[in-house]
Amino acid sequence: MDVTIPAQISAISPLVESVMAAVRRQSTSKELEIETSLREALANAIKHGCSGDPTKSIRCSVMFEGDLSVLIVVSDPGPGFNPKSLPDPTVGEHLYENHGRGIYLINHLMDEVHFKRGGAEIHMRSRF
Fold this sequence. Notes:
Elements (H helix, E strand, L loop, with lengths): L1 E5 L5 H15 L4 H19 L7 E9 L3 E7 L26 H8 L2 E5 L4 E7 L1
């Protein structure tokens, strides 16, 4: 599956529903983890990578490796970011902030997470 969507929050759910239907045909062992990670990655791409500009677009690719795993790649046209520079949302004053947990969640819910293109592309793998 290889899909391009406009950078609009309303485009997230239809794409996630389509991806999750394909995931369910393979396995349901990590359905919640995959769905949450995908929603977070898409929301980050819209908010940060596209700066909320609906004229920009986001690409999402989903590849199944037999019945062993799924690889999801979300990329945006933004400048990227350094994932190591993000503060830990579980300590200090960051505990009380109402944002900044998406990458943290993705890293804890998926089996593998890698950033490419300077952070403008996230590769997330979940093993079934």
